[in-house]
Each structure stands twice: as structure tokens, then as C-alpha cells.
Write a structure and sequence with these properties.
single chain; alpha+beta; Rossmann fold; Tumour Suppressor Smad4; 2 domains; ten-stranded mixed sheet; six-stranded antiparallel sheet; about 40% strand
Length: about 290
């Protein structure tokens, strides 16, 4: 078992939500705890500014800093941001949630001392989460590529008018729909935008992809769950420019043209989340969704 002077994670990066005063209430104690445990700590710009520790190595978006664990302070959005920064590197992610209980960032500020102490002693759950890869083809040429941890969304843009989307799965035509758009989500994303769109909740361990229509004109058009190794292709059928847009994880945006083909598949890599040993996905659902 790792000792306080020999922690399970020896090199840790801290990434905080910018412009949130609550970060300053927890960061000094967190930093002190990590250093007391013998951890080599790197800071992003927000953390370095609060601690006035510019001489420390910064966990910047570019260039590998050799961190074994990234601890985010904020919410699920902050953790997603960190995951995108370090996707492709062998790094674990742990979230401290400053707001309401998160689906991804599941440690409250009051729990940090006990929970983080146990994690540094080697008592934690390492959970793999699937990542989606989205490619946009225009006239047989690749014009955009994005990764998405939650979802890839094709939606109407600049006008309150339905768009037509033709869906194919593994080369087989599924349907042509007129709607406000479609959400293609991972199991992680099933509790995000897809949930608001009426989609089912998928357990994170499932090897699956979820398709959820957004306000379909045909009310019988329902969410579909397909195998995780599926190749999903959406053809933009709208005839006007500027009426459809692609968004990944609510951030990366790309304007779609008529007949663009959007292909979504699982990546061959995962992100890794670190949870306390007593982490319970269903308990999180009960708390987050106010179930009895």
C-alpha cells in the first residue's frame, strides 16, 4: 500500500474552472494536502494565479507534462475540458464538484481530505469511458474531425425551420427524418443533452451508442440504442446553406452544407475516470435526478 510519502499518483495536475470564486476556498487546502503527501503538483493558469505560484510547472493544453492524474475543480464541464486537453495520454481524471452533484465530478469539497487521501493510498476505482469520433465528409473529402466524450449533435441553425437528416447504420438505411436535429451520444452522454431530449439512461459500462431525435416532426420517431462498434452516418438533406450545424460536447462547432456526410464511430481509446471505492452510479442517479 502506498504511504503518505509514496503516493499512488506521484505527479498530479490541477485544473480549475476560471472566474469562479469558489475555487479559492478549496484550492489552498487541496494543494497543501497534495504536497504533504509527497505529490509533485503542476498548476494550470487559474490555479497558479490563485496560489501566486507562477514558478510552478503549468498544466497547459499543449505539450505533455507527465501527469499521472488530473484533478479538476469545478463541475462536469471542467472535467470534460480537461479530458479533451489530455485525450490520448495515459492520464486519469478526478473531479471535485463545486456545484450540485455531478455525473462525472463526484467528490464534494467537504469530502476532499478523506476521499483524496484514500485515493492517493491506492484505494480507488479506475473506470473507462468510451469516446466518440466524428468525421465530416464533403464531396468525398474530410473537412472536419472532432472527438466527443458526451455527444455529437447535428441541429438546425440560424433559422426556426426543420432540417432533413438521413440516417444509415453500418451502411443500412434507417430513416429519413425532419426535425430540429439528432443527438448521437455515448453512454456517458446519455445523462447529458440526450436525457433532456427524452433518451434512455445507459450504464457507463455498456458498449453502445445512442441516437436521439430532437423534436422530430414524426412523433413515432424514437431513440435508438445500437452496438458500440456501429458506424453511424448522417446525411444532411436540407437544401439551404447555413441551416445545419455540428456541435461536439457543446463546444466545437462546424457549419454543415447540403449533402455533407457526418460519420460517428467509437474511438479505439478511452478516457479514465477515478472514483472513490464506494462510488455508486445508481446513487448518483438518485441524487442528481431526485429519485426516491
Amino acid at each position: 500500500m502506498p504511504s503518505p510519502s509514496n503516493p499512488a499518483f506521484k505527479r498530479v495536475g490541477l485544473i480549475a474552472k476560471p472566474n469562479d470564486q469558489r475555487v479559492g476556498t478549496i484550492l489552498p487546502a487541496l494543494f497543501k494536502l497534495l504536497r504533504w503527501r509527497g505529490v509533485d503538483v503542476a498548476l494550470d493558469g487559474t490555479c497558479a494565479g490563485i496560489l501566486q505560484a507562477r514558478h510552478l510547472e503549468l498544466a497547459t493544453p499543449h505539450g505533455e507534462t507527465g501527469r499521472e492524474l488530473l484533478i479538476t475543480i469545478g463541475g462536469d464541464g471542467t472535467l470534460l475540458h480537461a479530458a479533451h486537453m489530455r485525450f490520448g495520454y495515459d492520464v486519469r481524471l478526478l473531479g471535485i464538484n463545486l456545484g450540485k452533484l455531478g455525473f462525472l465530478a463526484d467528490i464534494s469539497p467537504e469530502e476532499v481530505s478523506d476521499r483524496l487521501g484514500a485515493i492517493l493510498e491506492g484505494h480507488y476505482i479506475d473506470e473507462k469511458r468510451a469516446v466518440l469520433h466524428c468525421t465530416v465528409f464533403r464531396d468525398a473529402q474530410i473537412v472536419a474531425q472532432y472527438d466527443a466524450i458526451n455527444d455529437t449533435v447535428i441541429h438546425h441553425w440560424n433559422i426556426a425551420r426543420l432540417i432533413r437528416l438521413d440516417t444509415h447504420i453500418n451502411g443500412t438505411f434507417v430513416h429519413s427524418q425532419r426535425s430540429d436535429g439528432i443527438i448521437i451520444a455515448s453512454p456517458t452522454g446519455s445523462t447529458a443533452y440526450a436525457l433532456s431530449g427524452g433518451g434512455p439512461i445507459l450504464h457507463p459500462s455498456l458498449d453502445a451508442i445512442l441516437l436521439v431525435p430532437v423534436c422530430p416532426h414524426t412523433l413515432s420517431n424514437r431513440p435508438i440504442v445500437v452496438a458500440g462498434n456501429s458506424r453511424i452516418e448522417i446525411v444532411v438533406g436540407t437544401e439551404q446553406l447555413g441551416h445545419a450545424r455540428l456541435t461536439c460536447d457543446g463546444d466545437s462547432g462546424f457549419d454543415l452544407a447540403p449533402q455533407d456526410r457526418v460519420v460517428v464511430e467509437h474511438r479505439d481509446r478511452h478516457i479514465h475516470l477515478v472514483h472513490p471505492v464506494n462510488h455508486d452510479f445508481y446513487a448518483t442517479l438518485r441524487a442528481k435526478l431526485n429519485w426516491g
